[in-house]
User: Fold these one by one.
Assistant:
Number 1:
Amino acid sequence: MSSVANSTQWCGQSVERVEDAALLTGRGRFIDDLGVKPGTLHAAILRSPHAHARLAAIRTDAARALPGVAAVLTGADIRTLSSSLVVGVKAPVECWPIATDRVRYVGEPVAVVVAASRYVAEDALDLIDIDYEPLPAIVDPVAALDPAAPVLHDGLGANLASERAFRYGDPEQAFAAAAHRIAVTIRYPRNSCTPMETYGLVAEYDAAEDAYDVLANFMGPFSLHAVMARALKVPGNRFRLRTPPDSGGSFGVKQGVFPYIVLIGVAARVTGRPVKWIEDRLEHLAASVSATNRVTTLEAAVDADGRVRALAWDQLEDVGAHIRAPEPATLYRMHGNLTGAYDIHHVSVRNRVVLTNKMPTGLNRGFGGPQVYYALERLMQRIAVELELDPVDVIRRNLIPSGRFPYRTATGALLDSGDYVKAFDIALKDGAFASLRERQAKARAEGRLYGIGLTAAVEPSVSNMGYITTALTPQERRKAGPKNGAQATATVSLDPLGGVTVNVASVPQGQGHRTVLAQIVADDLGLMPADIRVVTDFDSGRDAWSIASGNYSSRFAAAVGGAAKLASGRIKARLARMAAAQLNVGVDEIEFAAGKVRARGNPDNALPFTRLAATSHWSPGLVPVENQALRETAFWSPPELTAPTEGDEINSSLCHGFIFDFCGVEIDRVTGAARIDTYVTMHDCGTILHPGMVAGQVTGGFAHAVGAALYEEFAYGDDGSFLTGTFADYLVPTAMEIPAPLILHLETPSPFTPLGAKGVGEGNCMSTPVCLANAVADALDLDAIDLPLTPAKLAGHIHGAERAPPQRPAAARTGKGRALHGVGEARVDAPPETVWRMLLDPGTLAAIIPGAHGVAKVSDTHFRADVTLGVGPVTGRYKADIRLSDLDAPRAVTLIGVVTGALGDARGAGRITLTADAGGTRVTYDYDAEIGGKVASIGGRLLDGAAKVVIRQFFAALVRHTGGAKPGFLARLFGRGA
Amino acid sequence: MKPARFDYIRAGDIAEAHAALADHGNDARIIAGGQTLMPMLSMRLVRPKIVVDIMHVAALHGIAASGADIRIGAGVRQAELLAWPGLAEHLPLLHAALPWVGHAQTRSRGTVCGSAAHADPSAEIPLCLLALDATLELSSRRGRRRVTAADFFTGMMTTARADNELIEAVRIPKKPAGAGYAFNEFGRRHGDFAIVACAAVASGDTTRLAVGGVADTPALHELGALGGKELDDALDAFAWALDARDDLHATARYRRELVRRMGRATIEEARACRD
């Protein structure tokens, strides 16, 4: 009898992860590692280079004719065989997995090629010929509300998709009575957690059964199973969704694979063959899932001592080009805890959801938290600064007092447990806040830029599936029926050798669910973790699951771990009754320890666990039915997760951890780079099941947050072009850029979860960006600062006014993104009339348009050409569409050119003026050009040069064609930017 | 993200590489370390008909002292040069700059001459070649020629190399006695392309500063023995003359400021370490 095992409690120990042996030796089984059936085809997707354009024509004949191509599908095909994805707001608007009538963001799928290999499929993409009629794009969420703005979805009539106002307590009275009103306005940018493994799936359609079978690295929530089944027009039981054993990170993002499951599912149906699609990195960055960008104005009614009496939220949420399920969930996930960690009784909220020509949004680690806490905690710092108070005192004064838990917030959350003031004080002491202040004083005395930031936050976990319905009015909710709860499931079964297997629908992506579940069940049954086999690859046709299944809202430890404990407990109860009968003791006297089931106080009166566990297989006749133990499935939905009330109060999450962070940041005076000098993060995530994994979650969340704060942004040009299409432009920090935070804990078990555990994986994504921003604002004495905190942005606050240029004036180079402007002139040895005729002659144009293979005259003022353009190493084939307008023969003409090709597209307009000059002509030009698509995404730095070369070649050829010019005259032909 | 179809030739000797270039010109691409070409192939930004692998050409390997120069063959990987025992003594600027080139992983594949051939305006190796007055050895079936770095880098990712030419080697003058060198760079992350990179060479009363990441090519400026406000004024004029641009990662104004400040610091550092 092992006394060690007897006393061992596995939960709470950092046991070795059962996942690691395979992952560290390259034996993980990810979607692209798994074999496929013979005959499986491969899909590639053609994507829009335009942010907004009408699809005038799609010609696929050449692509279909390519050997190896099985099918080419467009929006029309998808419309025929599926239906629109359900949209989460009550509005006459559809959401398809592929463009049907027009494209609404760069990267939106336009056609799918299915072929014998991915190589052939990509070859065929080049052969698809599309006529786009570009429409004005809208990128900024505030501008999208302008009645004159281009409208994305005609069914809505405007870009505002949802608007709701909420009122809790008496905010008007609180603001009227307040000593101070202090406000912040935040523009929170777009970013993503960019998992290392991209989306992937293999879809099959069984015509005999009219059923789909899809293997995908989907992560849930499985409410989307219903969305997909409806879109594929089959009952839920004819849409079997499976997941591979391993998934290489998700952080919410792999929720967004679901429209592709529908798209490729249809492709499998059309071809009658299994179809595999693996998303590549370019596709992932341009068109997977982004977190929302949000414009928030948050105002507080504040007492003279910094006590906040009321908050007024105004949130404008930008969900991109479609309201794709489960949006607008990002906006409502935090609704119950809009007062953060603070005791604030009066709140007003205005929430608006707007559509713009950007990638649709979805789940992303932190989900709504970064946006909310950035506003709330910037506000808390502003209160301290404006009232000349210590920010430490302002936070302490507003924290929910000890002893008030469970605490009901003004907006309806029930904060389960905690002692915020105690955790706050421990962090200040153990994190050595006083010495940080000394460090700052010393740095400042030396003239260095050093700031301190603080943040307190509540980290919600285990989402209430009903919170999203807060976006609907109470009347709409009554009509739709109440939505609430969060069913968690787990199955524990015993095999004929007495082995224990656990099956869950938690769909991990590397977190270590299998290890923790083995710990939980081993503790319950008195076994070793190695005795427990945990299976997490999922099959909707065989596993127990519900709509809340999946790996999101930090629900695993609290909900799935809890359900496993319940399922194990049921098995244990049956086994205990069986054992009591065999050992001739009362059930109360049975204990499970050290691999035995035995009489407490008389350990010799014992049965091996395995023998007892096998009994119901081998000799069920000896055991009363109610004691037979074979397989137990627990469904658990906490009663606290109720539907929104008539007053729109919503307990949006079951658990609420507490976080208090502080940091010291130094800004380099030359480069403006922010260096994190020290970072302390205190967490109360309830009972800690595996300290090593909790540290991993906190560190990982912190790393993502450092990225969001200092490096990462999905950037768009004003025309909707996507500017961060590779990891050379979307900058994810590496280990070199991320310091190790000091992690502290206080454990206050949740009374609402079976194990007392809460989520912990998202908290630093919520708290850290604003903590760093507060430190930067403190260092630079800034009132307002938005993310990301790039060196160039910060340097703008340090470097002061620039000396004027020494000689020539610098032409203004304004605008964002890849817009180019230029002016220039050339002298040609031919009279204006000759030059004029040449500009209107297809033959001449063919000779002078760089790389033209032939120019077709559509009308006197409209030409089309095929051109091959190369700049440096980059070469591509393009279609050029050139129109002449504002003709003033022979003096001036405007050329409007649209160049489209596989690498991207360019639109430019140039005014050319011809002036007679000593027997020749002085040609002056002034142009604006914009470049989008793949090239804009990838070769950002190449584009200015590309435009320069093309325009130079055009005018050089024009000059040559008219008989040449003075040598060297091209040397400085181009204005800045040309 | 799969390359378009191409043929692969593993050249066994220089003549075979020359023949491929002579036959296919711009439709052929040399592959050495492949750290730039492979992603460009995968993204179909380049679609050569032929890819000519020169890494198995023995004559292109090796680092050797050659008179007053160090000759680095086209097959020499960046990691190999970084590990070369003579680096700190003979090429102290490259000794300082090479750790800034990409990451250990990319340096273990990428070549010195490949970086020169690609001519990224933010890359460290072209910058150092310019600052050190290096010479590129080009050859084709028709002959050989040498081109100075100043003449070689003609624009963004464009060079004086003709379509039929192979870069056989780069020759870099050895450090003369008394010279001082310094290298500084600012990028967003470790291993990123430089937003601004500065290389300074000081010797006697001459000082030259090369700046990368700002103009279409690395840019060189002679600053003699200037100091104090005169040096600031000269750097200011240089900064303006580089035609800096706004992009996603930095503004033009920011780049100019770094040229002024980091440029000055780099010059002072180079002068201070003259021996």
Number 2:
Amino acid sequence: MTPVVEVRGLRKVYAIEGGEDVVALRGVDLTIDPGEFVAVMGPSGSGKSTFMHIVGLLDRPTAGTYRFAGHEVSSLDADALADLRSRALGFVFQAYNLLPRTTAMENVELPMIYAGVPADKRRRAALEALDAVGLGRYAHHQPNQLSGGQQQRVAIARSIVNQPQLILADEPTGALDTASSEDVMALFGRLNVERGMTVMVVTHEADVAAHARRMVMFRDGNIVSDEPVREKALV
Amino acid sequence: MISLAATLRLALQALVRNRSRSLLTMLGVVIGVAAVIVTVAIGTGAKTSVANQINGLGSNLVIVIPGSVQTSGARTGNGGASTLTVQDGLAIAKLPGVSAVSPSVNVRAQLVTGGQNWQTTVTGVAPTYTTVRSWDVSSGRFFSQPETDEAAKVAVLGQTVVHQLFPDGSDPIGRTVLVRGVPFTVIGLLSAKGQSGAGQDQDDTALIPYTSALERLTGGTTISTLMVSAVDGDHIESVQSQITGLLEQRHGIVGGKADDFQVRNLQDIAQAASATASILGLLLAAVAAVSLLVGGIGIMNIMLVSVTERTREIGLRVALGARSAAILRQFLIEAVVLSTGGGAIGVVFGIAGAAAIAVFAHWPSSVSVSAVLLALAFSAAVGVFFGYWPARKAARLDPISALRFE
């Protein structure tokens, strides 16, 4: 089975003008197989966000190799990365990042527009994705008519609509109350179990990470622990 | 890869999301384009209006006068020769590009009626004179061709003569006026024409058939002036040279011999006046162009604000797989839609404004199709030009910091 993500010796160094270089990642090795549900944890400054941006093809490593679904991607140009993002990746952000004054349906359609999917197919896929997150009835609601939890579920529908090989969620519960957080994480769990979707969630909350099946801990640009989550033990 | 149509739809959605701001941004271009169209219409109207006034003087008029003759060493001035005949006029009337010819026989004469008398220039002319001089009667009628053929004793009086001979305000039509003792019946009155360019009172005149003037007043066959009307301003040059050729032939002037006539026109005046109108139009157009430019800068300003305000949205689009070219295109299209939309609204307002000014100023206002197309094309160009920088700024945003932007 080809891993979805396979990084070896991943380094990221930010050159600060007039100061010392900041090393965000110091040679990270990690493999994520299809169907995994990984939580990436760590305090701020541990390099977990940088790691997510590189895995999400929004940033390039300074050194090391990154094979995405078996293909070396560290040498691709910006347009090729953009095309890959539109086809193979789904993003969920802390602040939902839905377009204002735009219906849930149109928001979910957006990634397919950039992937060049025809309109009738877009509509069907968008409705299906909204059904999958339990918001089929809200297709024509605008973000300001939805609760935070609902908005985040629209964003999740948007992330799965292109059938991506990997869903990346950056602090997806950071702006939600406990009940909505539970809802959203349970939704990721269902997508993982029922649809076999590969999910990577970046968070600093242990009870959020507990929904995953594997937990990777970052500290000072290194992975300090990588172990399966014991069922129910932390819940 | 995203299609152009899909990008256009994204751009329109973005503009509709900010409906009021989009409309306000358009306003600058609306005013600019409307101003361009109105001022071009005013400029054209002014030019047409000036041209009409000059035509009133007879700008298509070519005047043939006798030249100078030399008698035993002494040269008379221009007009001194008695060489121009009615037959010359008839020959000129047959030339292509000539619409009408009227001979003119000038006689200073004392006019007498009842208890009043007045000395004026009695001018013998043909019925075509009204066309040639663009000068019509205000009451009564002008004499006809049959009256001219039989040298009828009829006269049409200028307003000054009317006031001098009939100070009591009685109707002169039908009354008899003695010209050098010959009784003429007044059949019409000329409309007031005012002073000529040289300050002469053009209304101080009485018109009679040229045949009557020749037979009853001068007793000769030579005439003072031939007034020739060209079909339009473009034909004046060719008409002038044809007349010269024709008269040289008729008068037997060959080799280096000096012409015994002169051919003149009023084009110089017309050209000066229309040049003035053109400069005025250019000045107005420059002011209008500046306002269009300001409208373009307004678009750039708002687009820059919009790029900053939508930083997170741009980051999102990039994360979702938009190439930077797609972002650039979307923002460029937004700018062009704003500017051409503003341009289209501006055209409507401009045409309405030009029509209103035409009504109030009594000008022949004409909104030319080319001005409208030019304004639209220019407003689209404004959108591309002033939209490019903000669009490029949007396309070059770093998606990671854009997504974090608060």
